[in-house]
Amino acid sequence: MSVSEATNPNLNKSPSAKQFRLARNSELHSYWKESVIQSLRYLKDQTKEGKGPDEIIAQEIVLDERGFPSIRYVRKLLLDFFVLRSLDAIGKLPVVQSLLNYMQGSQLVNKHYRTLITVHDSNGTVIKEPDLRPYLIEDPIITFLRKYVEAEPSLDFDEMKFDKIYTEFEDYVSGELIRHYYALLPWFSMDVESLELFSGVVIRRRTSREFNRVLGMGQYPEFSLAGSIPPRDVYWSPFVAEATFRQSEQVEPRFTDLIDALRLFKSGAVGISGIFRESEVEWGTGFSSVILPDRRANLLGGRYRLEENEVASFKIFHENFSKLLPKVKKLEFVDLAIRRFVVAIEEILPEDRVIDFMISLESLFSKEIQELSYHLALRLSSLIGTNDANREYLFEFVKKAYDRARSRLVHGGAYNQPIVIGERKFTINELATELEKLTRLSIRVFLNLIGNYYNNKEGIIQDLDKSIVSSAARDQIGGRAKGAFN
Question: Same domain, yes or no, for 292 and 356?
């Protein structure tokens, strides 16, 4: 067992009978059990007659201890396709017919499938009550058997394996099924093998099975995934983020919120290329095992690495960020600032990054239209500045960045007159880098302010304006700006 498999609680876990709760419906459980036993018996008889599963030679990539890949060839029985090929015959077995009849009258099963396939007219009136039998054969019965042979390539009946899948089935039709997803983190690395974060999110080392799966190698039914993710992202993704969800939850936001937290924590190229459901046969039809996120980031800058002395700090940062997010999303000015910050980081051209960083800062510090750069620079320097000299520098830098860079760029001009502060002349790349640092710091300070004291932008701006002329007011809001996000 590899280190990553040993540290990941969802891998190689041998289920025990105690893990499975009692069936909600013992009679349905009995029908299912007898149907699976007889279906497996039928499939075994087919193999004895020479009509068994096809065998293929599949490629797999094996990683050595340094992470370098090499290809090996393995024989695989396509048991999954064998089950699909036997769909009609299995559906005609007497025990399966009895199961179908029982499910037709089962409130738990009937309600779920009727909701999925009942046809309504434009007024919401039911046009026709559907015959559930064809759907029940193609979805739960065949899916059940496919999951059974996928869990362990065997046609022998195993009570423990059966109970695990039956529990999943009841959870699925009742809306309580827990699904496992993982997302590639290209270019990301950290000095620990696994990091458990808030709300069940885990960053861990990628397994060899996941590596092969994302490349579309070694598992013939999943060749459709090949090409969905750029190969460079797969090879340079030694770590993945993993999370569990109820089937009714949205998957992508928890992963993108993690990326936002990482980017606010420190600089570096980090993002996600694709989100994969754990490689199992899925309950339900029309489900894709890979989600290509709306935000497929351009990974710019140096590689993102969580060093050993940063791991504990980020764990706390992520928890506080996750808990504050519901409030952040209700406060449009902070939510917009974070979104434009994220967009800026993903921009390829430094000119575009400068514009978006400035929009992010405007969202935080501005409320006027006239003399916007003046008020923006005053408030930011008062809140962020550490002493008089630093405040003077920040005021000059932000005002010039707005007047001589942001304003020219958004009106079609060029950054042909670099801003100069003291003896330093800022190239467009240096300006973008400095604004990234300043915007990240500003957002984190505002997270402290709204997390501890303020419920709206007006209160913050009012106290900031007082701090410009009052050292006591500056000390007061400066104290409030300290907290979990420093």
Answer: no
